[in-house]
Write a structure and sequence with these properties.
The complex is a heterodimer of chains A (172) and B (102). With 172 residues, chain A is mainly α. Chain A has a domain at 56-167. Chain A contains 6 helices and 2 strands. Chain A has helices at residues 3-12, 15-30, 36-75, 102-125, 130-146, 155-167; strands at 79-84, 90-95. Chain A has a two-stranded antiparallel sheet with strand order 1-2. In chain A, strand 1 (79-84) and strand 2 form a beta hairpin. With 102 residues, chain B is mainly α. Chain B has one domain: Winged helix-like DNA-binding domain superfamily/Winged helix DNA-binding domain (Arc Repressor Mutant, subunit A), CATH 1.10.10. Helices cover 62% and strands 6% of the residues of chain B. The relative contact order of chain B is 0.16. Classes of the chains: A mainly alpha (172), B mainly alpha (102).
């Protein structure tokens, strides 16, 4: 294959992949004849490498999303109750899943952060497991429906997980 | 001769490397000798990338712009597992087919 054709095909691959494999891959392509079949194979393979890279990014976002969602769900008010204290006044109190003041807050915050970080790390670590991505994504979706949106903060993470699972089907 | 399209590039690369370290071109030639069909260069390097990432193979020192790859001990264990599974399918398939053809 001529140098110009190799340059063209190499440009299709992700930069991170090229930095590791370019030299040896070029040497291999130099011994190959350019044909339609080889061209299609290289374009498809380059697309596959981009998909793998984007899955990594999507699941990294998903892992960060898990941490953000867990913290949000614990600390955002889940409900408010108001009692009338006169003809034109009412006293309202917001309710949280977790105490947000005093000693319990000081003790529970690092625990919640650690739990969120562990779950986020687990999500990223298992990003190559298509079964995990599907089960994780579907669990969030199903719970969202049956709980009338209680886990709304996890919805972006669930969608990213299912999108990543769909992308990992593409062979390269 | 079988067509590599019906076999996973992963299995073919691992099988080829079970015979000793090889660089990309040697892998393509060896797989062609086994299956009768050449893997595309993109398919080969897609498989090498995934196998290296999952620790089933490892790249050796590059020489003359070519990097040989070799099977890791984990890769050998995974290959053995895969081949035994294929063997079970092949044995059952051939036994049942002989009943159909006779």
């Amino acid at each position: 294959m001529k140098r110009r054709s190799i340059d063209l095909f190499m440009a299709l691959y992700p930069r991170a992949w090229r930095s590791r494999y370019e030299e040896e891959f070029r040497a291999l392509l130099e011994s190959e004849q350019l044909s339609l079949k080889t061209g299609v194979n290289l374009v498809w393979s380059a697309f596959g490498q981009h998909v793998q890279t984007s899955v990594d990014w999507m699941m990294l976002a998903s892992a960060v999303g898990v941490i953000a969602a867990m913290m949000t769900m614990w600390y955002m008010p889940v409900s408010a109750s108001c009692t009338s204290i006169g003809a034109a006044a009412a006293s309202c109190h917001t309710q949280h899943l977790l105490p947000v003041t005093g000693t319990p807050w000081i003790v529970l915050t690092p625990i919640m952060l650690a739990l969120s970080a562990v779950l986020g790390t687990l999500v990223f670590h298992l990003r190559r497991s298509r079964a995990f991505l599907i089960v994780f994504g579907l669990t969030i979706m199903v719970f969202f429906v049956v709980s009338f949106g209680l886990d709304w903060a996890l919805l972006p993470t669930g969608l990213l997980s299912l999108a990543s699972a769909a992308k990992t089907r593409i062979p390269h | 001769m079988g067509q590599h399209q019906s076999m996973s590039p992963r299995l073919l690369v691992l099988t080829s490397l079970a015979g000793g370290p090889k660089h990309g071109y040697a892998l393509m030639e060896d797989i062609a000798a086994i299956t009768g069909t050449r893997l595309g260069p993109g398919t080969l390097y897609g498989a090498l990338t995934r196998l290296e990432k999952s620790g089933l193979i490892e790249g050796l020192e590059i020489g003359d712009r070519r990097r040989p790859y070799r099977l890791t001990s984990r890769g050998a264990a995974v290959l053995e597992e895969d081949l035994l599974r294929y063997q079970a399918v092949v044995c059952h398939g051939l036994a049942r087919l002989s009943g159909v053809l006779s």
